[in-house]
Structures are given as structure tokens and as C-alpha cells.
Amino acid sequence: MTFSIPDDLAPELYPLAWLVGTWRGYGILTYGRTVPEQAVAQEMTFDHDGGPYLRQVTTIWTLDVTRSSDLDFDTPGLEGFARIAPARIWSTETAYWRPVGQEEPDGEGADADGPGAASADRPDGAGTDESSSGGARPRTAPRTRLELVSADPAGHVAVWEGWIRGPRAQIGTQAVGRTRTAVPLTQMNRMFGLVGGDLMWTQDMAAFGETEPKTYASGRLGRVQGPDAAGIAVPAGTATAEATVASAAAGAAAPSAPDAPAASAEADRKAQS
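User: That's the sequence. What structure does it adopt?
Assistant: C-alpha cells below.
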């Protein structure tokens, strides 16, 4: 699937350009006894208004079991999305990604336009340098530093830092704030990677009294083209399911969903490859 940089994209966002668009697919939610493992539908939209930042809107739905098929993480994102039926919104979040400079890898100080410049033909953004023996050696593209802010209707706001290099990005929270009634949440880490044309992502978090981050979410999403990028219609009047998690933390049952394979480890492995 071809992709071109939008004409009105700010130059500062070129390292993030591959994210721009609407992505849909499927994934897994799980968090110990609080959130039993379940399959979900997912959508991420990265857009811009010409400024030097991207806006990301993420929506996750639980599934209608009676109209959804079993999946595994080898299924392409869009194909998987077509085989499941969103039922109710589990969570939604808006985040802003802002690039704040670049870091040259140690020992690799070649000019951007000279030998070793990053190549768009390489999926990792790498080029080659001429070695002293006359041969070519791989060169890794600079990392672009990122700062983000995010908010969700469950009562959390967060400040993130991280980096993006080629088709890989990693971010982690530096501070998390919450309203008085929001679920306790102290840390989140996310990883994104472009694998076989699909956007793979994972999230770890420390919440519900846990002090160390544990796997919470993973997903595989395909890029949506043309009119299909319009929003998804779901049944009206369904309360955000994330609110049920607060009850689960107090001992109530979490939302039920169909059994699904434990795919978060596979997504993590592929996103790092």
C-alpha cells in the first residue's frame, strides 16, 4: 500500500509522517484479575492542522460475540477488523505528539545529505557509510525526540517523552494526573512499529495498586484509504465501558468478551524487529 507525505505537513513532522491517517484493526486487553483477557476492536487516527504536532485519537471497543470471528495475530489488521463487530466503547483518548529535536547516534556524524544519509528505501530509515576499507556499513538514522500530552474521559491526563526513528516509536509517561474518582494510574509505556504495512502497538501500565508496569493492551491495525476512513457507527446510548473497570477494582465483575489468544507478547516481538 503506497503512502505519500501530505503537502501541508509541517517539515518538523516528516519523521512522523508514516503515522498520518486512520488505522483500524483488532487487539487484546488484559490486566490480571481486574481486566480479564478479551479481544477488542481498535481505531487510531493521526491528523494535523498544519502546525508542528500531530493529534492522535484512539478508540477501543468491546465486541459483539455473536457477530465476531476468532482471530490470531497473523491476520492483517483491516482483514481482522472486518471479521469482528464493535459493540460498545471501552475507552477513548486524545494525545498530541510534538517533535522537539534530533539525536545523532554515537559515532555517526555524517551530514544529512552526504554519505550515510537516511534512505527512504530502508524500512528502518538507515543508509550506509563508507568504511575506511572502502566498503559500505549500515548507518542508523537519527532519533527524533518526542514530547506528548494526553487526556481521556475516565479522568486521566499525562505528560509523555520518547523518540521515533524510522517506523518505530517508544514513549513513556513522565507524569500522570487524575481526578478524585478516577482509577489509580501511575505509569504507562507504549511502543509502536510498522510491520508488513500494519501498525503494531503495545501498552504496559502500573494501575490498580500495582507498582510495576504490566501488559495491558496490544493491537494490529491497517491503514484505511479513501472514504472508508470516515468514523465508525456504533450503537448509541452505550456508556464508556472503561468506567466499569473502576467497579472491577472494587470487586465487581469486569465486562465479558470472547476468548482470544494472548497476543501482546507477539506484538511486542514484531514491533521490535
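Helices lie at 77-82, 242-249, 264-272.
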